[in-house]
Amino acid sequence: MAAFSRAKHRWKRDNLFRVLTRNLTGKYDYDLVVIGGGSGGLACSKEAALVGQKVAVLDYVEPSVKGTKWGLGGTCVNVGCIPKKLMHQAALLGTAVKDAKKYGWQIPEPIFHDWATMAEAVQNHVRSLNWGHRVQLQDKKVKYLNMRGSLVDEHTVKGVTKAGKETILTAKNIVIATGGRPKYPTNIPGAMEHGITSDDIFWLRKSPGKTLVVGASYVALECAGFLTGIGLDTTVMVRSIALRGFDQQMAVLVTDYMEAYGTKFAWKCIPKKVEKLTSGALQVTWMEINTSKEYQDTYDCILWAVGRAPETKLLGLDKLGVQINKETGKIIVRPDESTSVPNIYAFGDIAEGRPELTPTAIKAGKLLAHRLAGRSSELMNYHSVATTVFTPLEYGCVGLSEEEAEKRHGKDGIEVYHAFYKPLEFTVAERDAGQCYLKVVCEREGDQKILGLHFTGPNAGEVMQGFALSLKCGATYSHLLQTVGIHPTCAEEVIKVNITKRSGLDATVTGC
Asked: Which UniProt keywords are present, listed alphabetically (predicted)?
């Protein structure tokens, strides 16, 4: 014990000496230390190394409440975009099998889905990405430390391993890119004990069975969508509106399609408590807001999708005076991603006012790496960033919602062109296309610059990517009219749109 105590004091003395030496000489262990090994942090660290910086990246995954843990790569790779899209694809294949019969494929009954097979395949792919990221860091000479990082001062980071071993790193600049984690409701008895979050759903070895998804964010709807699509009894409990922050007309189309697809919705309801019965089932008591009536039902799984919280609590920000938004817990940053403390930067989901999207974090991280290395002064442009919600009927958008455009320009200052269309894929399969819709929100005067574009339909993400480029280039409605479409595609309908909402005319596309 005495030997251990002496070693501990020696470690503190040696590291204090290193910090004092750094302060006196201006020499650092690294040019850049990145805390956070998600998509943004990895992109920043690798880009910095490519432009000649000496870089270290610290990443440590705190297991979820349920004990789920994963490897290098952050939320997107492990418990977000990648496994979500793969499980969404599994659901789409289920629909395709049903459509296939109309196209002449002889498929023997019964058809069923095996969760374990899907989960193993998805998890194996994710593990391959974890390994790939480690190899890339090694190839690019980035030092990877599987440690929890925190700030000591504006040039010093303390790393702590799972076993509690501490390491001190000094750096000219420090970047925080730790992202966020799902929140549990703290006012609902049994919520944490008996529920899971998106940190867990993709790593379940067994099917979740009959599931209640609480929340109506894109995470909630995407998870509910693929669970329904693989044949599970799924209910979404919504307190107020779906897809808050998105265009609300499009949000209604998304949820209408989901209801027709088989997902159940409990609108204007809030859960009150969760209890585990002797049978193992989870009994949920909830209240209908408008009537205050209480209801109960049992489920095999409760998935909480009620928001995310930034990973800032263990970073030591308060000790250094790094300014945060007290309501959101996010770090306040300037346009160049700098914080209130010199030499400390933050970007991605942890930064206040930034889109919580992987591609924006990746691009912001790369641009920051170039600026810190003195190679560029280019700032990240956060305007007109496209995104897609991977619900059963996909919803892609770029630019302003109709509500936001009206707020900024006035109702008489915008023109909205729109169309209901039927994807060719839906025709022979006799699928309802009532929610396949697009609208182009434009300035009313002048060249009618496009302010926002919204699309529900197959492959919405693929459709929207190209149009996102056009908005960056200042596309106008006349540019759409001058563009020749690719026939027969869903994207073609965007450049054919000619009916305005203002006209009151039927916007249903007929013929080809």
From this structure: Disulfide bond, FAD, Flavoprotein, NAD, NADP, Nucleotide-binding, Oxidoreductase, Redox-active center, Selenocysteine
487 is catalytic: yes
Instruction: Specify the pLDDT at position 14.
Output: 55
Q: Which CATH superfamily is domain 30-182+309-373 in?
A: FAD/NAD(P)-binding domain (3.50.50.60)
CA distances from 494 to 111, 147, 386, 402, 420 (A): 36, 48, 16, 16, 11
For residue 79, the model assigns a pLDDT of 98
Q: Is the pLDDT confidence value at 268 over 50?
A: yes
Chain center to CA of 334 = 22
Q: Which residues in 100-195 belong to E strands, given as ranges?
A: 143-145, 148-153, 156-160, 166-176, 180-182
Could you confirm whether domain 393-503 is CATH 3.30.390.30? Answer: yes
Catalytic residue among 113, 133, 370, 487: 487
- The pair of three-digit structure tokens given for residue 471, joined into one six-digit string: 């908005």
Is 199 labelled as part of a ligand binding site?
no
85 marked as part of a ligand binding site: yes
Q: Confirm or deny that 396 is annotated as ligand binding.
A: no
* Whether residue 126 has pLDDT greater than 80: yes
Q: How many CB atoms lie within 10 A of CB 342?
A: 10
CATH of domain 183-307: 3.50.50.60
